[in-house]
Amino acid sequence: MRPAAWRDDLTAGQDSLFADRPSPAAEITYRTLTYEVTGRIARITFNRPEQGNAITSDTPIELAAAVERADLDPRVHVMVVSGRGKGFCGGYDLSIFAENGFDSGDQDPTGTVLDPIVQARNHNPWGTWDPMVDYAMMSRFNRGFASLLYANKPTVAKLHGFAIAGGTDIALYADQIICADDTKIGYPPTRVWGIPAAGMWAHRLGDQRAKRLLFTGDCLSGKQAEEWGLAVEAPPADRLDERTEELLQRIARMPINQLIMAKLALNSVLLAQGVANSGMISTVFDGVSRHTREGYAFQLRSATAGFREAVRERDEPYGDWKRAQFEKGEK
């Protein structure tokens, strides 16, 4: 018997035990993503390509549910998150909110903090802002995205096209990022009306490089992301699928228990760095950024001239207004 053949025989036997077992909750359908298992890999794919896979209130709930589904499936060793269409994720779908982001009516809100009407009233420039209404909503988005970090099993984010604004909040929670070399990655809303609520940039890039991006709102290319250590690899776009599959297959060969122990051990460093505290502070400041003088001006400009025009005016002085494909979802 060749070296380590026992391991192949053992894991092949384990796989055969579950080969004919139906996938857990196989009948589940999602509004914002699709889910499938091939071999030992769970594939979670954002599925709003015409909207740049922009984030809605369903996204964090469905992402967390899909991650838990993979975590509990004994066949799955690793999960990968990607996006259909031209990019991974263009951020929150806030164009409608920014253009109609306040309501001066006197009615008492009857919905929860997830109700867009409740949030719209809380963004009324002439009203009183309750920062905890903001926080209660955004912290729930964060908890859903953070399922990628807190899952027992390894998670991989596969980026192409663009991972912008809120899209980076998702990607940076993954254990590994692999991206096409021409992917656009960054958080332009730090220029006005946004702070990365997940608070993961310094943990992934270190203090100085994170500040370089967030002090300017500039973006990285996929190649730069690899050079800076944000991505483990940045192959040419036409080789992204191939290289991602090679990475996934290598991870999937490992026993699940070894993967879980390695992830827990390494996550302890991130937790000691204060990941949870970073997310809490950043989420509060994200709400604050939409209620500054400049934040209200941006919102009012969106309401009068349209969100696209407001974003163009924000970004054109920096020389990077090139977002015709996904500006609707950017935030």
Protein topology:
Layout: H1 5-18, E1 33-38, E2 41-46, H2 58-72, E3 78-83, H3 95-99, H4 116-122, H5 131-145, H6 147-150, E4 155-159, E5 162-164, H7 166-171, E6 176-179, E7 184-186, H8 201-205, H9 207-214, E8 219-221, H10 222-227, H11 240-252, H12 256-273, H13 275-289, H14 293-305, H15 307-315
Parallel strand pairs: 2-3, 3-4, 4-6, 5-7
Antiparallel strand pairs: 1-2, 7-8
Helix pairs in contact: 2-5, 5-13, 14-15
Tally of DSSP helical segments: 15
The low-pLDDT segments are 324-328
Q: How many DSSP-defined strands?
A: 8
Strand content: 5-15%
Could you state the order of secondary-structure elements as H and E? Answer: HEEHEHHHHEEHEEHHEHHHHHH
Level of helix content? 40-55%
For the largest beta-sheet, the strand count, sense and barrel status come to: 5 strands, mixed
Q: How would you sum up the global shape?
A: globular
Structural class: alpha/beta
Q: Please compute the radius of gyration using only Cα atoms.
A: 21 Å
The largest sheet has its strands arranged as: 1-2-3-4-6
Distance between the termini: 56 Å
Average pLDDT across residues? 89
What this model shows, in words?
This protein has helices at 5-18, 58-72, 95-99, 116-122, 131-145, 147-150, 166-171, 201-205, 207-214, 222-227, 240-252, 256-273, 275-289, 293-305, 307-315; strands spanning 33-38, 41-46, 78-83, 155-159, 162-164, 176-179, 184-186, 219-221. The protein is α/β, with parallel strands linked by helices and 331 residues long. The strands form two sheets. A five-stranded mixed β-sheet has the order 1-2-3-4-6, sandwiched between helices. Strands 5-7-8 form a three-stranded mixed β-sheet. The chain is globular. 42% of the residues are buried.
